[in-house]
Specification:
CATH superfamily: Thiamin diphosphate (ThDP)-binding fold, Pyr/PP domains
Structural class: alpha/beta
Distance between the termini: 51 Å
Largest sheet: 9 strands, mixed
Bound molecules: iron/sulfur cluster
CATH architecture: 3-Layer(aba) Sandwich
Radius of gyration: 20 Å
Number of strands: 11
CATH topology: Rossmann fold
Shape: globular
Strand content: 15-25%
Helix content: 25-40%
Number of domains: 1
CATH class: Alpha Beta
């Protein structure tokens, strides 16, 4: 099947200069480079400016309720492990109302890629403080400085159990594209924290703010990939330390990757041979004349506890 990640007949509904444009470009380039047919991608987005991205990419997927894109994505991946599942949402959506699901995805190590649009504000609803905005910061959209302490997405993902944890910048499109491709190739839960400007409501985290501060984690100085069990503790501890770095210098790149942890699909396959052989979406449910072939009686019997 010919592959195209571009939709050319839609009006892109973001403000001029928004970091979302860079993320959209990088995602389209990553999907084209990965060369899967459009029907093999499933993108799940939440509510917010970022959630609109699914309408601008040629793939299947669902624009979800607020904070609920991750459980929907987990369901799709478990039903059809052949899908390349991507979750796209803002820090307000995924680290606010959706934070429980964000943590659960890491604990399970489900094979999906979470793209976190990190701009510190709820842009769609006029710029209220979102979970990554530091306490004491007053953007032009706030009447008073932010009263809440901010979450650190990198540290949260590491402690939740994500096995691929990285940070990128929306205006460095090639670097971002490379990390999206690596996240998609990773077997397990991947978080990509994408720093982006919201020029309409956040006049603090701007291009001028990030420009002189960002630096890349690169070999030989930095290597976050765990290749053997004895490296696990040291690389994890170093990644946690690095996650706390935020100020005059802000690191971007791959903090941590560990494919020695079994994915959720692997864990279920070990427990249920039938799942390993034929996951739900790949099972026939009716004959060609429409006769239903499913019989749940044995399954229901196996789940009876009294
Ligand atoms: Fe982008 Fe902010 Fe405009 Fe939303 S409000 S489209 S995040 S610039």
């Amino acid at each position: 099947m010919a592959f195209s990640s571009f939709k050319t007949d839609v009006w892109v509904d973001w403000c001029p200069g928004c970091g979302d444009f860079g993320i959209l470009s990088a995602l389209q380039m990553a999907m084209a480079e990965y060369k899967k047919p459009a029907s093999d991608y499933a993108i799940f987005s939440g509510i917010g400016c970022s959630g609109k991205i699914i309408h601008y990419v040629n793939s299947t997927g669902i624009h979800n309720l607020h904070g609920r894109s991750i459980p929907m994505a987990i369901g799709a991946k478990l039903a059809n492990p052949r899908l390349e599942v991507i979750v796209a949402g803002g820090d307000g959506d995924m680290l606010g109302i959706g934070v429980g699901h964000f943590v659960s995805a890491g604990r399970r190590n489900v094979d999906l890629s979470v793209l976190l649009f990190d701009n510190g504000v709820y842009g769609l609803t006029k710029g209220q403080a979102a979970p990554t905005l530091p306490r004491g910061i007053k953007t032009k959209s706030l009447s008073e400085p932010n009263i809440d302490t901010n979450l650190n997405p990198i540290a949260l993902a590491l402690t939740a159990g994500y096995t691929f944890v990285a940070r990128a910048y929306a205006y460095d499109i090639k670097f971002l594209k490379d990390l999206i491709v690596r996240a998609m190739k990773h077997r397990g839960s991947a978080l990509l924290d994408i720093l982006q400007a919201c020029p309409t409501y956040n006049d603090i985290n701007t291009k001028e703010f990030y420009g002189p501060r960002l630096y890349k984690l690169e070999e030989p100085e930095w290597d976050g990939v765990v290749r053997k069990p004895e490296e696990w503790n040291e690389k994890y501890s170093k990644a946690i330390q690095k996650a706390l770095e935020w100020g005059d210098k802000i690191p971007v790149g791959l903090f941590y990757q560990n494919e020695l942890v079994p994915s959720y699909e692997d864990r279920i396959s070990q427990r249920l041979t039938a799942y390993a052989e034929r996951p739900p979406a790949l099972q026939a449910i009716s004959t060609s004349d429409g006769t239903i072939m499913t019989d749940l009686s044995e399954l229901l019997k196996s789940k009876r506890v009294i």
